TrEMBL record:
It comes from the Bacteria. Coiled coil: none annotated. Residues 233-485 form the PABS domain. This is Polyamine aminopropyltransferase. SUPFAM superfamilies: MFS general substrate transporter, S-adenosyl-L-methionine-dependent methyltransferases. It is a multi-pass membrane protein. The keyword Transferase applies. It is found in: Cell membrane.
Amino acid sequence: MIEPPEGLPVTPRTGRFLVLAGVFICAACGLVYELELVALASYLIGDSVTQASVVLSVMVFAMGIGSLLAKRLRRRAAAGFGLVEAALALVGGCSALVLYAAFAWAGDRGEMWASSSRYLFVAFSFAIGVLIGAEVPLLMVLIQRVRRQDASGAVADLFAADYVGALVGGLAFPFLLLPWFGQLTGALLTGAVNVLAGGALVFGLFGRDLSGRGRWILILANVTVLAVLASAAVLVDDFERAARRAVYGSDIRVAVQTGVQEVVLTGGDRESLHLFVDGRLRVSGRDERRYHQALVQPAMRGGPHARVLILGGGDGLAAREVLRHSGVRRVDVVELDPGVVKLARTDPALSELNGHVYRDRRVHVTHADAFRWLRGPHERRRPYDVVLADLPDPGITASTKLYSQEFYGLLARVLTDDGRFAVHAGPVVTRAHTYWTVDATLRAAGFVTTPYRTTGRHDVFAAGPDRTADGTAKPRDWGFVLAARAPEQLTAAAVSAVLRSGSRAAERVRPPSGAGLAPSTLVHPRYAD
């Protein structure tokens, strides 16, 4: 019979298993914290590629710093590991709450939030990275304490458990924590699991290695962290409601997580109604008609328009403007999120605003990603006279593929020879490079284009979809591009007063390099200002 090592309550085999199980759980929690920061940074700041790169690179760098600092704790590896896990659980578990609170209550001060938000994310990334990096050297000492083995074998065991745990954490975040608990509660729950796993491993397996004072310090630290996390979990719903009121105002009527995105409706009539998607203003009742008329009218008046395709536009407002034109026989709406369409059908204020378009038998909805839908079989599908891209701003990373040369090439397959295509391309003045890149990309895809804009926006939300990279400039216009296969189609569309005045306004702010911009492609997106 194999005797337990001196000072340990279990056999070496059992002890090794328990240490590796602790590594597995802690690694899963660590990756959840990383993904939480990436998701939250993309949601609150935008441009997910940049934010993911910053968060992950800072965190990996900090892990190296943490590994070096952990060398000072090796003589008290058990106590050090317990304190590291308690600190990691507190910082990681509360990170989403702190960052969202800063966004909600400081975000209305545009320049202050823009200048401080990135530093706050970097600070949390660095702190979490340091604590994660300190784990492995301490665990190396602990696993050797259980059973002496060569260093290469111990490192292989630790990293195997660490990588498998990271896999589980990486899968748990999008498929379990985020949809079931949300970002705030999910982070708090992860912190609770983290501190319990670390405390159980230290007290259960290495409790005899702790001094009396060290034991009480560790108990106090774990109890304090659990109390903070539990208190935050109890109050998280009230906190979230208060934060939403700070962000969206006091008249929130609907706030739902659809499975695709967060959708918030505020106000109850045309003047006060606002539709937010993932914190970005998508519809304002006070000025939406100006936007949708500018998107729809030039393309509809340029020629035949019996069959119309709307990409995005689940709110039904673009479809409303389309149905104002006689001769429309079919309108196909390709919208990714069924939740937006459901609200557009059932919410009294939004359905009144869109004229109850979804009751019209000519309107047909398909829930699909626009890019994938265009790649599908089209042999049995008649081409469209008009295509309208009512999509999020191209500066949002998730939308970049919908403004690529490949996307426009796919779109050409479903357009008639004399068809027109109108695309929302973001604000012209504050994001000129992005706007004119859309125009260059359409021309590279074989279209003839007419850029135009409409001005005089009444309502601006500082964190809206058309915000600039630094979040400080407030756009006061919408930019569009009308495209067709032949110039005569654009000549016919020029009868629209919106297009005539808007085209002149857009040309006045064309940058000197506008004609020489390179197109944006899937493998080389060019929309970052």
